[in-house]
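Quick one, tokens below. Sequence please?
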């Protein structure tokens, strides 16, 4: 029997609530299949931990996480901790430390989910954004000079290496070829005359090796417009760290909201653990009330299953969510229902068993 060791970082706010449902789902999947199992070890890191210890994550955190197959993250963030501390000292630290250079964000309008854009068919919203996840605008390079003085200057330097840019673009091309889809590169080469011109050139050069893949390029402002006006033109999208971060939240809004927004941080070589997370944040305003939507966390669990090669179970989870969203009897408040987090999780398991 295969055993997958998962490090669990429930984090803050609703993270603890939604991750609990995702773990129930993973345990049930393993039980039903009978050929693999999960073991979970919990880590208390996050903003609450920071308030107690002065650290978002322990100094040896990466070393301790390195022995696991994957990481399952809930959410990190709290009103009394600056966002740049919680983000950089845990999430970005893990992404960069474990070379999780691929961020995969599915943007798919599931059955039963209303689209806020009139005239858009369900099949028109079905893309995956491949976001560079290790460098670019989030490299953390720069300086803060003459702080507090009249001549104060801040420098935030984007870092685009040939290795980093080429490997994320190649990953996206391979995905597009494998799934027989188009690929669209999104940049801003007309204004960012070094980094994005460099990106565009590499996209074209790598594209010569994939003549069977239909290729498109858009400036990020035009792409944002077409995400709303004509999402059907996008299938596989590849873009930089910052642009991917922004566009995928826009995509989540098109596809039903943050309650369905899942993300995977992948180290394709599997030298280090990959990390799976809902991306809706800690939502402190509803934390502790048991009303958070667990579907994004469960969708990210589905991504984990696919990462482990359990595509059949991954698909069943999505189908189970679609069944619930279509029947509209067990839904949380963000989809017009009154069910609790635990009730939705239990219903997803029930529907999955019936499939």
């Amino acid at each position: 029997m295969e055993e997958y060791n998962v490090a669990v970082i429930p984090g803050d706010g609703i993270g603890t609530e939604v991750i609990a449902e995702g773990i129930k789902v993973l345990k049930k999947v393993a039980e039903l299949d009978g050929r693999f199992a999960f073991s979970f070890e919990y880590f208390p890191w996050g903003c609450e931990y920071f308030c107690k210890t002065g650290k978002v994550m322990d100094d040896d955190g990466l070393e301790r996480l390195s022995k696991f197959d994957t990481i399952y993250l809930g959410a990190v963030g709290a009103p009394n901790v600056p966002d740049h501390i919680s983000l950089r000292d845990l999430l970005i630290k893990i992404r960069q430390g474990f070379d999780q250079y691929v961020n995969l964000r599915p943007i798919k309008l599931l059955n039963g989910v209303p689209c806020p854009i009139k005239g858009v068919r369900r099949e028109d919203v079905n893309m995956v954004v491949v976001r560079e996840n290790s460098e670019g605008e989030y490299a953390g390079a720069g300086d803060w000079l003459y702080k507090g003085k009249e001549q104060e200057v801040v420098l935030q330097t984007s870092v685009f290496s040939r290795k980093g840019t080429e490997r994320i673009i190649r990953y996206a091309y391979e995905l597009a070829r494998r799934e027989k889809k188009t690929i669209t590169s999104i940049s801003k080469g007309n204004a960012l005359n070094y980094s994005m011109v460099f990106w565009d050139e590499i996209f074209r050069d790598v594209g010569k090796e994939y003549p069977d893949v239909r290729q498109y390029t858009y400036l990020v402002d035009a792409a944002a417009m077409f995400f709303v006006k004509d999402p059907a033109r996008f299938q596989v999208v590849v873009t930089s760290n910052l642009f991917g971060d922004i566009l995928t939240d826009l995509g989540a809004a098109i596809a039903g909201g943050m309650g369905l927004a899942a993300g995977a941080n992948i180290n394709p070589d599997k030298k280090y653990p990959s990390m799976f997370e809902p991306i809706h944040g800690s939502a402190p305003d509803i934390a502790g009330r048991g009303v958070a939507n667990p579907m994004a966390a469960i969708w990210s669990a589905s991504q984990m299953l696919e990462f482990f090669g359990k595509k059949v179970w991954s698909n069943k989870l999505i189908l189970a969510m679609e069944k619930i969203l279509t029947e509209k009897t067990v839904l949380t408040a963000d989809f017009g229902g009154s069910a609790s987090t635990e009730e939705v999780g239990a219903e997803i398991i029930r529907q999955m068993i019936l499939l």
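The chain has two domains: 1-100+258-355, 115-255. The two ends are 24 Å apart (CA to CA).
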